Amino acid sequence: MSKTMMDQARALLRELYGYDDFRGEQPHAIESLLNGRDTLVIMPTGGGKSMCYQIPALLREGVGIVVSPLIALMQDQVSALQQLGVPAAFLNSTLPPQAQQDVLHALQTQQIKLLYIAPERLLQSATLEQFKSFRVALFAIDEAHCVSQWGHDFRQDYLALGVLKDHFPDVPVAALTATADQRTREDIAQRLQLHEPTTLVGGFDRPNIRYSVMPRANARRQLLNFLDRFPGDAGIVYCLSRQKVEKTAQWLVQQGYTALPYHAGLPADMRAEHQHRFLNEDGVIMVATIAFGMGIDKPNVRFVAHLDLPKSIEAYYQETGRAGRDGEPAEAWMIYGLQDVVRLAQMVDQSGLNDQMKRFERQKLNGLLGWCEVARCRRQALLAYFDQAAPDHCGNCDICLNPPEMWDGTEAAQKLLSAIYRTGQRFGAGHVLDTLMGKVTEKVTQNGHDRLSTFGIGQERALPDWQSVLRQLLVHGFVHIDADRFGAIRLDESARPLLRGEVRLQLRKDLIKAEYMSSEKKTGSGTREKMDIAPQDQPLWEALRACRKRLATEHGVPPYVIFHDKTLALMIEHRPQSLEDMAQLSGVGQAKLERYGQAFLDQLQMT
């Protein structure tokens, strides 16, 4: 491809988006698609995947067709493009028939350059035939991991997207996702029939995100202690069940927070309203199942909290990646317990998957549990899972900020393993630990376990300590959970040398207290500290944000679609005196300059 085309791409980047140069793998992805090659892009959330297909679609002849599973977000995505001056539209079941006909007419008359469409609509035979009547610049398959059975969010309606190559063999396909291991990448390429694709894997590290994980002790108190550091900030709290979502959201409202529930069981109009409020208002906390979050572009989400274990490291990475898309400090915080592992294992067992897939899902769950229990830099361990190297010490995770103590857990492990064996390997963690600690419960006496030699031999340790030992025995593979037997804990063959004293076992001490960071690392997490706005500039900062909010309301888009916080901060730093000055600021493209520039200049001069 000629240098001229990439020069045009960079000129478009400056004119449309207001940025001076591409990041990471963006230029390679854009060049590949401009050359007409199929391209597989693995890039972290916030890494700028959409630009990888938007710019080639605008420069190539024809219409760029973007396949997205996110009907509820298509309008927002199209509105954001229209704010940039891009002729874009969406086509899905939410549009009335006449509006759908209007979009199709605009496609035929070349009035649209980017079209967002749901996979089930695209795959209708009538749609495919209609699209053959005009030139297609490229197909972009967003959230491409949904096409793979090995991906963490497989969608049945993505399976048939491979037929696009049958109907449009010469049109390049871009498959984009934030997370995909090697097996998933190969599956994506095969299912979409990609022809010798250019495969680009960006860096997975999100250095602005602080990772923290701790055992669940008092979930609500732990959550409140965490949220105290984020006054007025937007965030997401993930729960495993719909019932827990609703109860947690209701409780947070009682504590004075603006919190909204979101799960697939709520009415569609309520989900849409809650999503709209989260995107458009400041300080909203969304309490959600995994049904929420994919495609959310809100840049100033300051935290993602998990009150339960997700299903895999891929799911965790994808969900936590919704924090800090603006590059400013953000936190990924999680509490978990052994019951999470039992419940998720049972869900896998009851899923109806074949045996191979069940083994695969259990391996993923074990991998996540192992990551939760690491005693080394959490970021390094996370990146290692994705086959990427990282320094031994990141300085921005709970392990690096407060390294856990290690202790010789050999004797404790032997006691616990013996209790599991003596009770017949037929009971869950709760009963085994009751027996070990000498608690006289009805279940213990009914089974005669108060007469066992192991009854009460663990009285020297508290319940949280024994729970920690059991979790770490799971991670090391000495025991496993039998989902077929209602979560019974069973010994693995590898436990024999440990029971005989032939090996020693080092365990980590849990850090349960909420104040897990050294005091100098704590921040109030308010907006001013994050954006580094000087106290004397705070009135101007608030005035610019109010101006942005007013314009966003007028134009029916979220505030961040007008300008990101970073761009407002640059206005304060450089104090542009003219539209020409403002055009030099990062994030100020030509369309936004013409539409909004004068309003912000007026505000800068008034304050």
Give short descriptive properties of this protein:
single chain; 607 residues; alpha/beta; Rossmann fold; Arc Repressor Mutant, subunit A; 4 domains; seven-stranded parallel sheet; six-stranded parallel sheet; 28 helices; 17 strands
- Percentage of β-strand residues: 5-15%
| Assigned CATH architecture of the largest domain | 3-Layer(aba) Sandwich
| Main sheet record | 7 strands, parallel
* Helix content range: 40-55%
Radius of gyration: 27 Å
CATH-defined topology of the largest domain:
Rossmann fold
Strand order of the largest sheet: 3-4-2-5-6-1-7
Record field, number of beta strands = 17
Tell me, what's the shape?
A: globular
List low-pLDDT spans: 513-529
Give me the number of helical elements.
Answer: 28
Structural class by helix and strand composition = alpha/beta
Cα distance spanning the termini: 49 Å
- How many separate domains make up the residues? 4
Mean pLDDT: 90
CATH class of the largest domain: Alpha Beta
Q: At the fourth CATH level, what is the homologous superfamily of the largest domain?
A: P-loop containing nucleotide triphosphate hydrolases
Description:
It is an enzyme of class 5 (isomerase). Keywords: ATP-binding, DNA damage, DNA recombination, DNA repair, DNA-binding, Helicase, Hydrolase, Isomerase, Metal-binding, Nucleotide-binding, Zinc. InterPro entries: DEAD/DEAH_box_helicase_dom, DNA_helicase_ATP-dep_RecQ, DNA_helicase_ATP-dep_RecQ_bac, Helicase_ATP-bd, Helicase_C-like, HRDC-like_sf, HRDC_dom, HRDC_dom_sf. With 607 residues, the chain is an alpha/beta fold. It folds into four domains: 3-201, 3-Layer(aba) Sandwich (Rossmann fold); 209-401, P-loop containing nucleotide triphosphate hydrolases (Rossmann fold); 406-508, Winged helix-like DNA-binding domain superfamily/Winged helix DNA-binding domain (Arc Repressor Mutant, subunit A); 532-606, DNA polymerase, domain 1, CATH 1.10.150.80. Helices cover 45% and strands 13% of the residues. The protein contains 28 helices and 17 strands. The strands form four sheets. Strands 3-4-2-5-6-1-7 form a seven-stranded parallel β-sheet, sandwiched between helices. Strands 8-13-12-9-11-10 form a six-stranded parallel β-sheet, with helices on both faces. The protein has a two-stranded antiparallel sheet with strand order 14-17. Strand 3, helix 5 and strand 4 form a beta-alpha-beta unit. Helix 14 (338-349) runs antiparallel to helix 15 (355-372) and helix 24 (538-555) crosses helix 26. The longest helix is centred in the middle third of the chain and has 18 residues, at 355-372.
